[in-house]
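INFO batch 0412 | record 1 of 1 | parsing
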Amino acid sequence: MPLFNSQIHWRGIGNTVVVELLVLLALTFAVVRYVEWSSDVAQAEFMSATKPSTSDPNHSGEFSIATQPLKGRTGCPRKG
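INFO prediction complete | emitting tokens
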């Protein structure tokens, strides 16, 4: 049995490889564009979430925490 069969269609194999490479290139391009798009969307959402709200008249541009003064002991009373 010979190693190289003369019945092999090299041109067909070459065409198949070229088509496979083009499909792989197109998929790679699509994945890269999707990642860029989703990254841009995520960055825009992040930036809009960090902007101060213009509807809040008391907003000073800094984060504030509402605090209440402590009166006496806090927490659960001990038994025993």
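INFO post-check: The chain is about 50% helix and 0% strand.
INFO record closed
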